[in-house]
Amino acid sequence: MDEINPFFDPKSVVIIGASRNEYTFNGILLKNLLEVQYKGKIYIVHPYTDIVMGIPCVNNLEKLFNNGAKPELAIILTQKNFLQTLELLGKKGVKYILIETDFSQKISKDKQIILDNSIKKIISEYDLKILGPSMIGLIDFQHFFTSSIIPTRSHIILPNRKDKPQSGASFMAQRGGLTGACGWWAPDQKIPFAKIIHIGNAIDIPEAEMLEYLFEDPHTQIILLYLKEIPEEFNAVLAKYKNKKPILYKYVGKPSKSEQKFRELGAISVENYIELFEFAKVFLWAPPPLSNAVGIIGPSSGAISLIISEMRKQKIHLANLNEENRISILEDIGGSTCELGNPVDYWPPKEFIGTQVCRVYHKASNTLLKDPQVSALFLALEFFTEIEFNFSIFETIKEKYPNKPIICVLIQAEREGAARILEIGTKLQIPVFIDEIERAVRSLKFLLDFYEIKNGKK
Fold first, then answer.
1. What is the pTM of this model?
2. How far is 286 from 379, CA to CA, in rounded Å?
3. Domains of the chain
């Protein structure tokens, strides 16, 4: 941890090769750093100007050290005098270095080998710790530091600034653009993040070491990976930390024994990229289910049948209610509710406007969740704007039954109603899936599998 932490929480940083144009890769890194309100000292080395984005500059690295500066982390954005710069950093005791420039576009393969060997020699001579080259960068949501060369969306990061560091999901990708530009920016429900990572070609610190760091990181609750290849070192890390934390991954490489072993060691493979973030909210917000027996409340047999159809595939079944709760649902809810009391099918409602539907959900949820056989609850919602559905009723229900997951599926809800449910659901930390019934059920299946394996039941 001590050898990796300075990359995420440096007390001071020098940027070598920052651009005055904040909309270039070389300029946007500094812009990001200022926008996330990084609190450490920033030094800039720029040969042609005295100031960049309000930060004073020195025109060469030697002058910076002569002025008494000793930054903890160096970020190199330029290829000019690269090896001399790297060696000078080593001589002056700057141990932690990010190489974010990309050499592969401008030199031949033979020259790349010579350059790599020269870099490795300097690393060995000065005991340096290096991430990169060709990296997109890092984002640390606890310490408000970023080295990303693409926008970091500070309006998402800064609202999370609290006295207590934020914990959540950490996302690492082997393909750069995805690390910064997709998924974590705009899920339907904003989930908390701990770290975003893309380390490029990994000439020194390998990806497996970063994966191990995430397992050790106290702020990382779940690990999300986008992978083109799975080195055997990844499997060694999973074997060491087996089931310590959930790990979800999307693999886009060719079928391999290494990937098969990765899954056998407990990593959970998702079907498509966005599921990394859609399933993460279930692992972050839902408690461990005690069994695969669930309750369902839905607006019609059509919606309920879609849920049950996917439940059969995932080996999740309807809970058998005790007699008291079964009778309570039949007498209090009425309508066409199944005579077993579960699922609760309230169609048709007595009124298409007002609060009647909301009252049905409130009574039915309390009754189902208090039943000892019900370990989780699916809420299917399909309503018109005229229905006054106050999703805040689930605040007290969650407090009353904190050990039972509640997962909501919005089925063709009108836009205004859907926006309301998403906003309140996020506030209450209730996972909401929009028109993705199968995905909602599979998320519970993954949650069940993880905790069964973790607790030695599978």
1. 0.93
2. 14
3. 1-134 (3.40.50.720), 167-285 (3.40.50.261), 286-454 (3.40.50.261)
